[in-house]
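Recall that a protein's primary structure is simply its ordered list of amino acids. Everything else, from secondary elements to tertiary packing, is in principle encoded there. The following example makes that idea concrete.
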Amino acid sequence: MKFAEFDHVRIKGKNVTGEIIHTYEDEKGVVRYTVESDAEGPIDDPDAWNDVRFPQFICDEDQLELI
């Protein structure tokens, strides 16, 4: 696992920064990361889960970079 919970990351190609709040393995054994955005309020992105105060994204390791 390259990243850990509470790491501060940037989602490549989305100009979104945030904190990893959850890690898990999917049914195929791929590690996935839930990233909570640093920005409060909805983000205009189809991958964003905007039903919470700080939008969240589910990301693969190759989508993230440590900041």
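The beta strands are 8-11, 16-25, 31-37, 56-60, 64-66. The chain has a mean pLDDT of 96.
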